[in-house]
Amino acid sequence: MYAFVTGSRGFVGPYLLSELERRKSRAIELHEKIDITDSVAIRNEVARFLALIPRDEKAVIFHLAALSHVGKSWSGPAEVISVNVGGTANILAGLAELGFRGRFVYVSSAEVYGNQPQVDAINEAHPTLPLSPYAASKLAAEVFVQQVHRAHALDTVIARPFNHIGPGQSESFLVSAIARRITEAVRVGSPTIEVGNLGAIRDFLDVRDVVRAYCDLAETALSGETYNISSGAGRSVAEVVKEMIRLSGARLEVSVNPGLTRAIEVPRLVGDCTKLQEATGFRPLHSLEATLGDVLQYWRGRPGV
């Protein structure tokens, strides 16, 4: 399989490249200097990829590139729309124009579901109720994916990953931020760490399991369909923080800092992954506890922490 990967230098990208290598696929990365909001440049990059594919070889495009921080999307919504929606539309237009006959895997987000407090585990049939510019941009991009699938018979699959975590994630995301605070507290001998909303419930999955799901969808999913990528289990932030402190071996207290709490936040976001399992046989290989330990180990090895 030949794979073209956008966003390969973000958190998830390197893990996806490793998984593709493990599966003996040849991966081509979107050039780091290419702006996905530049429609001409994107078309040329897509053409470059298509020219490399031998006849009868399967081709897949994994579109990861995006501005992905929910909280920060409020301060620059126009840029978020330009990159997440405009960039996706540019790639799709290039594929349609060039007659691409491979599969396009669009990485969306579970944030498109928004706040659905009466739902224990959200499935793909539930309504979408985005609560942030980021979530709205991902949903708008999904509409473009579906439109091109219908109008040009492009083979598309939409993945909606829930919270994915692992070593190397930016500290602007919850688990990585807590791991860094714990590591720093241990280093300087502080008895406390600051946290935000402890009551939020999330569905955590190891990034290495997430990229396996992306590749499984590329190989076996039904065209035109949308799939949740989740564990199906909800964990509160309080549980996660408690487990990370236990894994660290430190005696630490938590101090709630209102400044670390978002003004608008989804209280519960847990995904039903039945459709993914039925389509691919997917099962997570990493426990949450093991992943949290890996994230802590990552921060212990960082200079200056």
Report on the structure:
This protein is an alpha/beta fold. It folds into two domains: 2-164 and 204-229, NAD(P)-binding Rossmann-like Domain (Rossmann fold), CATH 3.40.50.720; 170-202 and 233-269 and 286-300, UDP-galactose 4-epimerase, domain 1. Helix content is 42%, strand content 16%. Helix 1 (13-22) packs across helix 6. The termini are far apart.
Instruction: Please count the beta strands (DSSP E, at least 2 residues each).
Output: 13
SSE pattern, N- to C-terminal: EHEHEHEHEEHEEEHEEHEEHH
Low-confidence stretches: none
Under CATH, the topology of the largest domain can be stated as Rossmann fold
The CATH superfamily of the largest domain is known as NAD(P)-binding Rossmann-like Domain
Summarize this structure briefly:
This protein has nine helices and 13 strands. The chain is of the alpha/beta class and 305 residues long.
Describe the protein's topology.
Layout: E1 2-6, H1 13-22, E2 26-29, H2 39-52, E3 59-63, H3 77-98, E4 103-107, H4 133-152, E5 155-161, E6 164-165, H5 174-188, E7 192-195, E8 201-202, E9 205-206, H6 207-220, E10 225-229, E11 235-236, H7 237-248, E12 253-256, E13 268-269, H8 274-280, H9 288-300
Helix pairs in contact: 1-6, 2-3, 3-4, 5-7, 5-9, 7-9
What distinguishing features does this structure have?
alpha/beta, three-stranded mixed β-sheet, UDP-galactose 4-epimerase, domain 1, globular, 16% strand, Rossmann fold
